[in-house]
Specification:
The chain is of the alpha/beta class. It is built from twelve helices and ten strands. Strands 1, 2, 3, 4, 5, 6, 7, 8, 9 and 10 form a ten-stranded mixed β-sheet that branches.
Length: 324
């Protein structure tokens, strides 16, 4: 039986210094039916020259966009125009794969389980400034219903880390992958929705290294970006609700837990920055857009936490120091 084609897509923009590590790690995979596609989002650095160095490898494909696109528009465009495989992995240009056999291990799991829609694995986080390497190791089932992953999101089942996720494109029913460019957590949102359409596999290996460094896309975003990103939780909730997979009360508890946790995380960041204007605007805009969220404030725990963060936000650094 012939092996199914698997594609690793590396979208890149002005990362010529980091890109070779990502490409080399992808081409180092021992899976025979592999294609590596680098999509250059109209970089202004030496990215084309970096990619020419790999052009002799028949598995390597380089494409260049005519103009720089928003990140998720770029990802979606590559999937629609340049990719052909059913199973795809998106590898960020500043990350790299760590286990040369990862794609083979994932493919073996896929071949034995036709109902799979997503496979992922463990990873390390590399802090470039200090050189510290922090492992993420989880005890997860090799095969589980995607609904289990969904309902246990941020509890027993942690976040899907992009550079380890092999996903089945045709399993995205009722939505298009990466079609919500205004939502920064669009990938997480889509993997959550995708998980509800089948089973999720987990390969117990350190599949990749996630680099934390200056200049990442998620660095320095204004609070408005994180406000828009609340939809990366709410839209999967609506998707699950419309599919009738969970009992209504169970799904509402999920929304309350995940949405509130993320919301408080944004408020805490604003409080630490002493951004009282952003704090109050976020509170107002969230209650205006998600009117149902106001009902959560009848829970004493949430109200007290918000009040504490607001008081902390309004306190001056000098006053805070004096109270220590």
């Amino acid at each position: 039986m012939s092996l199914p084609l698997i594609e690793i897509i590396i979208p890149t923009l002005n990362r010529a210094a980091m890109l070779p590590a990502a490409i080399k790690s992808a081409l180092a995979q021992d899976y025979p039916a592999l294609k590596v596609i680098v999509s250059d989002n109209a970089s202004g650095d030496s990215t084309p020259a970096v990619c020419r160095a790999f052009s002799d490898d028949p598995r390597f494909v380089y494409v260049r966009q005519e103009r720089t696109l928003p990140m998720y528009d770029h990802w979606r465009g590559v999937l629609e125009k340049n990719a052909s495989a059913e199973w795809t992995l998106l590898l960020s240009d500043d990350d790299f794969l760590g286990d040369p056999a990862y794609i083979s291990k994932a493919a073996a799991l896929i071949s034995g389980n036709p109902g799979l829609v997503l496979v992922h694995a463990d990873f390390d986080t590399l802090y470039e400034e200090t050189g510290e390497l922090t492992p993420t190791r989880r005890e997860l089932p090799a095969l589980a219903e995607g609904s289990w992953y969904f309902i246990n999101y941020r509890e027993k089942a942690s976040v899907f880390r992009l550079m380890t996720v092999l996903f089945k494109r045709s399993a995205a029913t009722g939505f298009s992958m990466f079609s919500s460019p205004g939502i920064f957590g669009c990938d997480t949102m889509d993997f959550l929705r995708l998980s509800l359409n089948g089973k999720v596999g987990f390969v117990k290996t350190t599949a990749a290294v996630y680099r934390m460094h200056a200049g990442r896309e998620s660095e320095g975003n204004p609070w408005q970006t994180y406000f828009e990103n609340l939809d990366h939780i709410y839209l999967p909730y609506l998707y699950a609700r419309d599919r009738g997979i969970f009992r209504p009360e169970e799904l509402k508890r999920w929304l309350r837990r995940v949405f509130t946790g993320y919301f408080l995380g944004i408020l805490e960041g604003l409080s630490n920055e002493r951004d009282a204007s952003g704090f109050l605007c976020l509170l107002y805009m969230t209650l205006k857009k998600y009117r149902w969220f106001a009902g959560y404030f009848f829970m004493p725990g949430l109200t007290l936490r918000v009040a504490f963060l607001l008081l902390k936000c309004l306190a001056t650094p000098a006053r805070k120091k004096a109270n220590k």
